[in-house]
Amino acid sequence: MTSSPLYRSPVARYLWRPSGTCLVLLSVLILTACGGGSQTTAPVASTPSTVTLSAAALLGQKIFSDTSLSASGQMACATCHNPANAHAQSNNLAVQLGGIDQQLPGTRATPSLRYLNLLPAFFFAGDGTPTAGFNRDGSATTLAEQARVPLLAAHEMANISNADLTARLARTAYVEEFRRVFGSDILAAPEQTVDRIGFALQQYQKEDREFFPFDAKYDLFLAGKVTLENAELRGLALFNNPAKGNCAACHTSARGADGSSPLFTDFSYDNLGVPRNPAIPANTDPAYFDLGLCGPIRTDLSHRADLCGAFKVPTLRNVATRKVFFHNGRFTNLRDVLGFYVRRDTNPEEWYPRAADGSIDKFDDLPAIYKKNVNLSEVPYNRLPGMAPALSAAEIEDVITFLGTLNDGYQITN
Ligand code: HEC
Ligand code: HEC
Questions:
Q1: 186 Cα: distance to centroid of ligand 1 (angstroms)
Q2: Could you report the per-residue pLDDT of 234-249, keeping only the tens digit for each?
Q3: Which tens digit of pLDDT belongs to each residue from 80-95?
Q4: CA-to-CA distance for 295 and 367, rounded, in angstroms?
Q5: Domain covering 55-211 assigned CATH 3.40.20.10 in the classification
Q6: Ligand 2: nearest atom to the Cα of 337
Q7: pTM for the full model?
Q8: Is 241 exposed, middle or buried (0-12, 13-18, 19+ CB in 10 A)?
Q9: How many whole angstroms from 111 Cα to the centroid of ligand 1?
Q10: Angle, nearest 10°, between helix axes 190-207 and 55-64?
């Protein structure tokens, strides 16, 4: 499981990319062949363009930005998942501060909430590949279940109990609407009330196209409505090329045969050996490690030593708008992320600190016993010191330029 062709499950791929013929993209030419021709008129997204939100989703929309549901009175889902920032954080802190006095730090960087609407619960594919689920460790099975976590977490919205949250809901302007939709005596049962709050937030995220607009420049390119600039095309070819970036091996870039748009993730898990981030307060304890699938937040896989250090592959849609990157927010710009990908093994001294004996403490955010779990076999990691990186500095610029075509809300200007 540790060396990761196994992580690239054909089953997982099948889920997201039904077209077997386009799974491996050798060049932009093949991509055009897959996405073009008779498919150019296929719908870019699988949902209709005008959607009326259900009553539950309309409530979810109100709850999503209601700071009165937090203990501090200052925090809502939208505080960390800012709609103006692709539903991700809008500051460049590695971890957000929350809780009753807005001073308690979390332990992970805030992901975007875009393009999660069809994601199933975590599962092991037929070949054992961990796949899907919500949160960076797949710990929540549905969007509804996930929503309860920040509402009740001491370092986030900090309600101390279901009753506490229900009392806050009772004081909102939309409580009558909540009763109308979920039952006139619903608030008498706090457990059910919080369950319905989670459901409302789920329906909002699943129904409102703001969460999955599929209107990036790249979507318009796949639909044959715009062309890409030369640097964007070069970047796309490097992104897809298995001998260069090989990014599409995990960050799916091709449409499915049914015309479904690529999500730039296969929702599998991998261990990249991202350097430790000293900006996370929990990391001041040298014995603390965030090991993703195997804990400490998620506990049901703590016996799976082979999964320690694996985190979910995130979508790269809107990645150019992100303020911090990777689960621990270790990097603050794409140039460093790409540099890390291709020079992690050729130039480890650029990324990792030195140990007491002067040696480079490679993979310093993993306990020694789990360092062997880091993916060393797949391009672009398969290098040794002294070898040339998989991408040159100029090629990195092209890939970054291409990633800019994945931002939602592209406007055709000419
Ligand atoms: C204090 C900042 C903060 C607040 C407030 C917050 N979140 Fe999050 N959210 C995060 C972080 C950090 C993660 C990653 C957690 C993890 O991986 O364990 C996350 C993860 C998620 C995910 C999973 C995304 C994925 O890629 O699987 C969803 C969905 C989500 N949040 C929805 C919400 C909703 C709905 C609310 C309001 C009830 C909310 N969040 C409030 C910071 C926040
Ligand atoms: C073997 C699978 C794999 C390959 C190949 C791969 N990635 Fe990733 N990528 C991941 C995983 C897993 C993460 C999340 C790691 C974490 O949070 O610790 C990630 C995270 C990222 C992020 C950070 C996104 C965010 O929201 O923080 C960027 C940017 C990125 N990858 C770009 C690329 C590019 C560009 C390439 C090609 C050069 C590439 N990746 C190749 C698995 C892969």
A1: 26
A2: 999 999 999 999 999 9
A3: 999 999 999 999 999 9
A4: 13
A5: no
A6: 29
A7: 0.90
A8: buried
A9: 7
A10: 100
